[in-house]
Specification:
The structure is a single chain. The chain is globular, with a radius of gyration of 18 Å. The protein has 297 residues and is an all-alpha fold. The chain contains 16 helices and no strands. The protein has one domain: Na+/H+ antiporter like fold (Up-down Bundle), CATH 1.20.1530. Helix 5 runs antiparallel to helix 13, helix 6 runs parallel beside helix 13 and helix 12 crosses helix 15.
């Protein structure tokens, strides 16, 4: 079991460390270009190639998506209670309680733990988080929401196309399937490197506060995951994926929103750094729990 966990954890940590060192050594690494390539090309292709596969159980994918909605709801309630007690502003920190880093860490980790079978449910969860960040996240952080922007997101558009292909059982030409599979392969390593490169640019100015908010992120996510796994009766890979993604640290997108709407971005940056480091340190335990919950370990 120990060696199995190390085999999962080590690649994740090493690739993040590679991104961090690459950026610190000032080697060429354009975050904006690579991030745009991943989100606008890689992730849509990953969604399409994985969810249109012949061995994908759409009912199970839909169940994980519903579970993700409920996890976010529970995590939001837990976050509101903690922030009210701690007398911290919701518009600055509630996003961290609501959603973890489902992209840069959640997707790669689900793949590492459960192999290709872990990607379809992880992608379903990731889609729910993406929608949540661009709807509820904007309402919480900025007090505004424009549905037209959501409809222009490549991730949403690719999801709509994927649903149509699956629902109407449309055949996917082999060349399209192979092309999207290859482009989707960009996502996992580049997301991890992007996370490492981003961490190299953030600083922790308020360690005590960052630590407290980081613990809130884990408590909110873990509580939501356990409540939903029990309530839905989830088992197997679906249960493990829900646990993994729900317990991920605060995401870089939270900093981008805080910076855009002047919601103490320097404090949010500290939460991202501390929560990510804590998660990396606790990754063996998170993976072990995922294996136990899923029954794989």
């Amino acid at each position: 079991m120990f060696l199995e966990i190390i085999a999962v954890v080590a690649p994740v940590i090493l690739i993040i460390a590679l991104g961090y060192l690459w950026a610190r050594l000032k080697f060429p690494f354009d975050n904006d270009t690579i991030g745009s390539l991943v989100l606008r090309v890689g992730v849509p292709c990953l969604i399409f190639s994985n969810l249109t596969g012949a061995d994908v159980d759409i009912a199970e994918v839909g169940l994980v998506a519903m579970a993700a909605v409920c996890v976010i709801a529970v995590s939001t309630l837990v976050g509101i209670v903690i922030l009210k007690v701690a007398r911290q502003p919701l518009h600055t920190y509630l996003m961290s309680a609501m959603n973890g880093n489902s992209g840069n860490m959640g997707l790669p980790l689900a793949l590492m733990v459960f192999g290709p079978a872990g990607l379809p449910p992880a992608i379903a969860y990731f889609l729910v988080v993406s929608i949540s960040q661009n709807t509820l996240g904007l309402v919480v952080t900025a007090g505004q929401f424009d549905p037209r922007k959501l409809l222009r997101e490549p991730i949403i558009l690719s999801s709509v196309v994927t649903v149509l292909v699956v629902v109407f059982d449309l055949g996917v030409p082999q060349w399209i399937g192979r092309t999207t599979e290859l482009l989707g392969g960009l996502v996992v390593p580049l997301m991890l490197m992007l996370l490492g490169a981003s961490l190299s640019q953030f600083k922790v100015h308020y360690f005590g506060l960052s630590l407290g908010m980081s613990l809130m992120r884990f408590v909110a996510g873990a509580t939501g995951a356990l409540v939903v796994i029990w309530s839905f009766g989830l088992t197997g890979i679906e249960a493990g994926v829900v646990w993994i993604i729900a317990t991920m640290p605060s995401a870089v997108v939270h900093f981008l929103m805080a910076e855009r709407f002047a919601r103490s971005p320097e404090k949010v940056a500290g939460v991202i750094v501390v929560s990510t480091l804590l998660t990396l340190a606790g990754l063996p335990v998170i993976v072990w729990v995922a294996l136990q919950i899923s029954g794989v370990g």
